[in-house]
Amino acid sequence: MSIHWERTVLQAAIACNIAVADPEEVYGAARIGYSGSYQGADVVVGQPRLLCKQGISVTEEASVLANTLAAIGRTVILVASNKQVMGMLVLEDTVRPEASQVIARLKELGNSYCSDYRR
Fold first, then answer.
1. 98 lies in a domain?
2. Do residues 72 and 65 make contact, with C-beta atoms less than 8 angstroms apart?
């Protein structure tokens, strides 16, 4: 998943007619998420390691699920409010139709970073 998961989440919320309010404060943590406040609540949205850095406990069940999903290529984003995990977003890249042709061409050109990685 690209590091721009924020755009994906915002677009999905808008598509589902979910009101998206502006936070009062926002602090970014390079590539792993954001923390800030909204209506007096401390909010953290990001990868599980960001929540750990913020001292937020993640249940064993949520941790196992997040690790399982990450192992099959999903991006897992947790949402916490006032140090309590409230939800989990799971994102997945869509493979473009032309991807196999691009990879084949890169291999022809000698690109050693291309492989037939499949889970």
1. no
2. no
The residue to which tokens 């590091």 are assigned: 3
Report yes or no on 19 lying in a domain.
yes
Edge-to-edge strands, sheet with 75-81: 25-29, 33-38, 41-46, 75-81, 84-91
Number of domains composing the chain: 1
Give residue-wise pLDDT tens across range 62-94: 999 999 998 998 889 999 999 999 999 898 878
Question: What is the amino acid identity at position 113?
Answer: Y
Q: Is residue 56 part of a domain?
A: yes
Contact 13, 7 (CB under 8 A): no
Query: ∠ at Cα 60 (59, 64), nearest 5°?
Result: 120
User: Which residues form the domain of 41?
Assistant: 5-91
Model confidence, pTM: 0.69
Q: For 30, what's the count of Cα atoms within 13 Å in the CB-facing half-sphere?
A: 0
Tokens of 100: 């196999």
